[in-house]
Design a protein that fits this description.
By secondary structure, this protein is α+β, with helices and mostly antiparallel strands. It has helices at residues 9-23, 34-40, 80-83, 101-117, 157-165, 186-195, 209-223, 235-245, 274-277, 286-301, 323-337, 353-361; strands at residues 3-5, 52-60, 67-76, 89-97, 122-125, 138-141, 168-179, 200-203, 254-259, 262-271, 305-314, 340-349, 365-376. The termini are far apart.
């Protein structure tokens, strides 16, 4: 089957349009914004490409020219997995394919060969060329639920295509759900009472994005940057994230705990944007932006809104002291007052048992599972799962 490198606008358009065509009859399918996928491959707009390489292909039917599949391969020379001297690992992503193992194998082979030439000994996928917060993982459970913003919906047969090729499970990423009306365990209120005089709990202010960026940067680097595969964040990166969130953020969903003036914990959520974008369309052109403004206004009037948690963290010095539990008592009240009925928390890795304990403690249950797979080029080498965070 002809495998074509995407080198012009026509092929790029075919690459972008494939998933909507494959999944158009699936009631729960919500595709990503095409503009955001295109940004990944734009050297002028993706800073990861400064010290990285990326390539993408489409696979076509030899008789009709119909696109049967797509894939991208990439490596960022600053990424910890690429720099791992024992097992330099590249990535593949944006995989979509008809239910045909031979077609999938041809796509996987192309990615593997391209990465091997560049010195890689393994490949992870499907992942994103960038941060883990979006376009990461293969859906393997929860097909009956709509995807959250930044996450792909995949059909069940994709799992078979990956595993029959030889990919092995590296880690799982869970999406957990709870209603905000469900009460928290009484111990949470006790913690809030105990910490009322020592800690201050407050949400961010949209009018002060600089403080939001600085507080987020401080807690993130202390709570997360020490973990495998997570790089420290610069203050400029935090500022950029705050600016990117500004059009859609609801300040009542961004909560911090402070000890004196120091931020020591956060629980940050956003309105679940796919509940807006599913009414907007696949592109944020002028017409799409106008539809977005209208649908955003309608969403804000609702009292059954859905939110999704994007990140949670506690500075190590304050872990295990109940500060996060107290913070959630205040946050939950604000969520209810703001009309958020449902909460989904994305991207909880099975390598992070403490976070899984936290989600269970607030009464959340797993409703979706994504998998990140790894393929070792040396098929005789023993396979190891992602290490557990201790």
């Amino acid at each position: 089957m002809p495998l074509l490198e995407v080198v012009d606008a026509r092929l790029a358009r075919q690459f972008i349009e494939l998933p909507a065509r494959l999944h158009k009859d699936v009631p729960n399918y919500i595709g990503p914004l095409e503009n955001e996928v295109e940004l990944v491959f734009d050297p002028a707009k993706n800073p990861q490409l400064t010290n990285g390489e990326i390539i993408r292909w489409i696979l076509t039917d030899p008789g009709t020219g119909t696109v049967l599949g797509r894939i991208a391969a990439f490596l960022n020379r600053d990424a910890p997995d690429v720099l791992n001297a024992d097992l330099p690992t590249g990535g593949l992503g944006f995989f979509e394919c008809v239910n045909d193992q031979a077609a999938a194998n041809q796509l996987f082979d192309a990615a593997r060969q391209w990465l091997a030439v560049r010195g890689m000994q393994a490949m992870d996928g499907p992942i994103n060329f960038g941060e883990r917060d979006r376009f990461w993982g293969l859906l393997i459970d929860g097909y009956d639920r709509e995807p959250n913003y930044g996450m792909f919906w995949h059909p069940p047969y994709y799992r078979q295509l990956f595993e029959q090729y030889g990919f092995q499970l590296y880690f799982k990423q869970y999406t957990c759900y709870r209603t905000t009306a469900a009460p928290l365990h009484p111990s949470f209120a006790k913690r809030a009472e105990e910490h009322a005089g020592t800690f201050r709990f407050d949400h961010a202010r949209k009018s002060d994005l600089e403080k939001l960026a600085q507080d987020f940067h401080h807690v993130y680097n202390l709570a997360w940057a020490r973990h495998t595969g997570v790089k420290p964040m610069t203050l400029d990166q935090a500022r950029r994230i705050a600016q990117e969130m500004k059009p859609v953020l609801d300040e009542r969903l961004l909560w911090f705990a402070y000890h004196g003036d120091e931020p020591v914990a956060f629980f940050m959520s956003l309105p679940e944007l796919n509940q807006i974008f599913k009414h907007v369309g696949r592109r944020l052109n002028l017409a799409g932006k106008l539809r977005f403004l209208w649908q955003r206004w309608r969403f804000r009037q609702r009292r059954d809104k859905k939110m999704f948690g994007i990140i949670y963290g506690v500075v190590p010095e304050y872990q295990g002291k109940g500060v996060d539990a107290a913070m959630l008592v205040y946050a939950r009240r604000a969520f209810l007052d703001a009309g958020y009925a449902d909460l989904e928390m994305n991207w909880i890795g099975d390598f992070n048992p403490r976070m899984l304990v936290t989600t269970r403690s607030i009464g959340a249950t797993i409703v979706k599972t994504h998998a990140t797979y790894r393929y070792l080029f040396d098929r005789e080498r023993p396979f190891e799962r992602s290490p557990i965070i201790r």
